[in-house]
Amino acid sequence: MIIKDHWKLRDFREGEAKDLEVASPLYDDYFWMSAEVPGDVHTTLMHHGLIDDPFYGQNDQKCRWVEERIWWYRTVFTLDEAPRPDDKMLLVFEGLDTFATVYLNGAELGSTDNMFISHTFEVSRELKPGKNVIAVKFDPVHAKVGGKAVSTFWSGFSKERVWTRKNQSHFGWDWGPRLLCAGIWKEVRLEKYDAVRIEHVYARTAEVGEMEALVDISVELTSWDRRKTYSVLVQLLDGESGEVTAAETLEISGTAGSGLSGLAGGMSLAGGTKLRVSKPKLWWTHDLGTPHLYELRISVRADGITMDKRSQKLGIRTLELKQRDADGKPAFTFMLNGVRVFAKGANWIPIDSFIGAVPDARYSRLIDMAKAANMNMLRVWGGGIYERDIFYDECDRLGILVWQDFMFACALYPDYNRNFMDNVAKEVQQVVKRLRSRTCLALWCGNNENDWLYEALHASGDIPHPFYGEKINHELMPALLEQLDPSRTFWPSSPYGGNDHNSREEGDTHNWQVWHGNIEPRVFGEPQLQDYSVEGLSFKKFKEDRTKFASEFGMHASANLYTLHRNVPQTELMLGSAEMMNRNKDINHLKGVMLMEGYTGIPGNLEEYIDFSMLTQAEGLKYGIEHYRRNKPETSGALFWQFNDCWPGTSWSVIDYYGLPKAAYHYARKFYHPLVLTAEYTPGDAELVLWGVNDTRESVSRTAELVVYGMDGRQVYVRTFAAEIEACGKQRIAVVKLDDLLQGLDAAEAVCVVRWMDGCGEDNFYYFCDHKDMNFRPVNLNVQVNPEERSVTVSSDYAARMVRLEMDEAWLDWEDNYFDLLPGQTRVIHVGQKEGKGIPWNTLKVSALNGASVAMNGRQPVTE
């Protein structure tokens, strides 16, 4: 039974009410406000108009009182009949955020102090026929940890967060506001069992051959009847045909218990078997093949009766992280089914500040967008949450690997405290058991940046303390993972490896030379220095990076204008206003200005800021990622920071809070294409090098074309080149001198396009000067709209830079956007709305950086 109805919510000040009185079934909650579960306090208050939208203006400051109060949830549910004497009734809370005390019919069942794990209570005696009352009290964070916060310990963004096993970014980060949520953020269920319950299923591929695969299955049970012997049927069904492809039965005796389960005297039992799968259909990332999924079914029987059953999706695949190449040199390469993977993707943060209220559909939309952008890996960053099941469901289904951090980030953690470490151990065990059968899961990582930042800040004298938290990811986690999931690599931290945990010589790296101006390389014992200058922050620093795996790097861009309009008062919608500054939680705002200064020039108004920041982010990521891909196999992955936003702010994301892509998202679809044609060129170079990079499992023979145009569309250079690129390989196709390319044309008036002649992928545009030094001609855009076909047709008289299509709606699904357009070229762009809403054609606006905007007047576009 899912308990989701009739929930109510009310706040109390400390000392205002006695707990047992509020928890009593007789307590009068008639005038409490209704609440959604799953959900949270803030969204409930917004729904009832008791707080203003925290995302609008600076309302996040106006609702700070919410985190100071005690909050109570109550609900009533009906039980048709009393449990039988042998029934075990379990009340399960999948997620409580965070310091909660649970009551049923006035009885205190227990307290919780960890948002990341589920909490189960055996309640057979406390239930009664008819109405039953659940009450849950949430204490404020400060009441639980305020006295423990040690102000001298290093912890980015907040001191008290390190004592709370809670979404660390709730306390505020450099891309999101402090909104300290509380509430029942996951499902609540009442489950009924007789003698046995399936606790965990661990399924992993042991071997893969051409004709047969071996799959190991482990089953953990809780038994309340030690006299029984349980028959466990394990079946693997083809996900397409539904036919049983393998099956085994194992017997688990109740007399061979391995220990108490903690559930009302239940005994923990375990057993395992192997499935032999003939002619296995392998799971691949979507760029390498088909992410084929089987269905694994487990059923437990005793005395001829099915007692419990479970099913889950399972892909057959092998996956390892190679840390040495064929010559024994350091590497960081994921091998999927024996094939070298170049990891292409981004870092994933919580998709909302109020995560409990987010519908599953938003996850599906975002992960589908990751696939559409040719991403094959997402990193679940360690300052947020272990994601909901829908996240991993979609990654399994779509063929996207997951780099999974544990939730520790940018801080020292109190590993000297026994209670804290017991809590962490319980968290690690439960999280690993929940996720270890996920086909998409590629790597366990201990934390985000703790090892690197501690060493660097300790060397500079900013942290005088021991490395508190080191025992978590260097002792506790590896010991638990060796026992619970030996099938995957555990990586202690990100970044990690080499003589400096951010060394380019070994392990993975976070390239914050760009944007933060870090001076690299450094070695252990040296302080981490920054160069805050136009040159020090420039994205051209990427070309110096020979990392093995770039797991973080990026730069800011504005949210879309529609998003800003919804959340910034009209009087403040201007560059440099207090409200616009509040959108940017990264303290040193000059970094973004200097990054633009080096490429686009400094923006003079809000429209230029939106345009310049988006173009700089898009071109900067393209410059870096194409460099990393050309550097394969020495470099084996590029995961930029960051994919999504948790609120409508200015950040490193490529998709803003309302699901509207920035320019960099559409660029990503092109620079992450499995077969990319890329030009190695930096303004000032005397030659251009043409490369082909192939991330597929097949060798390819293609013809590449390189064309240089003037602003009027005149071709000054055109040539084709034969390319033969091996599977998962690259080719240096040609080297062409700049003078030959330009044929006397001014470099500031040239447009270079490289493309595959057979139409594979999309045209790739390059310029021989930084944007601020280009001489684009003013263009006139011709725009035609066909609402019936949901399309916009755009052409231009001269070369148009970054053509943008926008309308006043969230989750618009543009086929392409922020694209360059050659003179005489016509683009037909289709558009949808991912929530199924209508298209507001009357708000359409089409613009280019070098042209006047075209807006709709009725059904006819007019130039503004």
From TrEMBL:
InterPro entries: Beta-gal/glucu_dom_sf (IPR036156), Beta-mannosidase-like_N2 (IPR054593), Beta-mannosidase_GH2 (IPR050887), Beta-mannosidase_Ig (IPR041625), Galactose-bd-like_sf (IPR008979), GH (IPR017853), Ig-like_fold (IPR013783), Ig-like_GH2 (IPR006102). It comes from the Bacteria. The keyword Glycoprotein applies. Residues 196-317 form the Glycoside hydrolase family 2 immunoglobulin-like beta-sandwich domain. It holds the Pfam family Ig_mannosidase. It is found in: Secreted. It catalyses: Hydrolysis of terminal, non-reducing beta-D-mannose residues in beta-D-mannosides. Residues 19-186 form the Beta-mannosidase-like galactose-binding domain. GO terms for molecular function: beta-mannosidase activity. Residues 687-773 form the Mannosidase Ig/CBM-like domain. Pathway: Glycan metabolism; N-glycan degradation. It is an enzyme of class 3 (hydrolase). Its EC number is 3.2.1.25. Keywords: Glycoprotein, Glycosidase, Hydrolase, Secreted. Residues 778-848 form the Beta-mannosidase Ig-fold domain. The keyword Cytoplasm does not apply. Homodimer. Belongs to the glycosyl hydrolase 2 family. Beta-mannosidase B subfamily. This is Beta-mannosidase B. It comes from Paenibacillus favisporus.
